[in-house]
Structure prediction request, 260 residues.
Amino acid sequence: MKIVTYNVNGIKARLPRLLEYLDEQQPDVVCLQELKASDETFPIADIRAAGYGAVWHGQKSWNGVAVLAKGADPVERQRGLAGETEDDHSRYLEAEVATDFGGVVIASLYLPNGNPLPGPKFDYKLRWIDRLAARARALLAEERAVVLAGDYNVIPNDDDTYSVRAMASDALMQPESRAGFRALVAQGWTDALRTRHPKGGVWTFWDYQAGAWPRDAGFRIDHLLLSPIAADRLADAGVDKDYRGREKASDHAPTWAMLR
Prediction:
């Protein structure tokens, strides 16, 4: 079972690339982020024509998350995180997907960027991590196969970036951001990509600016965290890097975990 997280950076602009990816790779589940589309304009007809069911939580012009399942309709469990009633950002969507070994709970999440810092955007990022941690703790208590997949906007380790110096002042690599991510993992989650590539040096994002892609100046911010039951089934994890180099591609590459 191939579970993918893919920040498409605008589903309208990137729809040909997404459909191409679905056709060529045939993943079982795809978690999308940064749809930049309202619920009404989500291209469900095209996705169904590609053989996928979907649930989505859109927002006009920015944010937005979705869960796609091959040959099935995911069952929505929760949208949004508790803790801030005034938060209207479309950043979290949780669904159940049926599999041969029972249902898997899948969450697609788009954690706030947090720049510039210091300031309210960074404060919101840290609060959001805490709110995610509360939900993650509740999911672990269910003792289910759970995957928290998405763009976390956190570079966890120094070897997860091409240049520590270049990213030192960015919200993605601040001590507080890293501490929040590590505390989340320490609940009992397995970082799938890190487990399969413990030496680091694996990127999931390359900026459009400054020739980052041809220079391979990237970093790792797209993560799949697995509950213990899901982690027991982990067979492999990786990045479909070549898709970042295609015409009008997203600045993220599809990142995946394979469960037995």
